[in-house]
Amino acid sequence: MAKINLLPWRTERRKQRQKEFYTMLGGTALVAVVIAFGVVKFYDNLLANQEDKNTYLREQITTLDAQIKEIEALDKKKAELLARKAVIEQLQANRSQMVHLFDELVRTIPDGVRLNSIKQTGENLTLDGVAQSNARVSSYMRALESSGWMTKPDLSVIEAKGEDKTLPYNFALQVKLTKPKKEGEVETEDEQLDEADESAGGGAP
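RE: above sequence
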């Protein structure tokens, strides 16, 4: 019986299998490298896109901050202009009042009374002067009350120590500036309360 040596065939087959194994292993490694590279590239693109978005947002935030500062500056300037406008309107409104006020001060001074100084603090007017007698001062206060431009005369000081013998009494009184009511104009609630307080207190001295 003939003998067949199978060792070379087995050796050849083993080498073939090893070659196929290493080929598959190399292919698998190559696929793994490609997949890993693709994943890394994918996340790099995501990070780059996110960084672009962040850069864009930072630029927009910077632009908005500048616009907000500009708006705040405009609001401040607007407030200043409105304040100036209010002052100008108040001065224009008071211009005619002051003309009438000085006219009334001249018109209401009776004989035997002379003003030395006039001081205004807000709506209050302080009148310092000299008079011939207490009666002259009382007459002057009634004239101020009836003038329509001044109200609530309040005598704070009257004393006989003037150097002028014809006008021996020094006096100081305060009045509140007001505007004459137009025909048919209704008094405000504050004015009605003020008049009620004045009546309860006995009126001006």
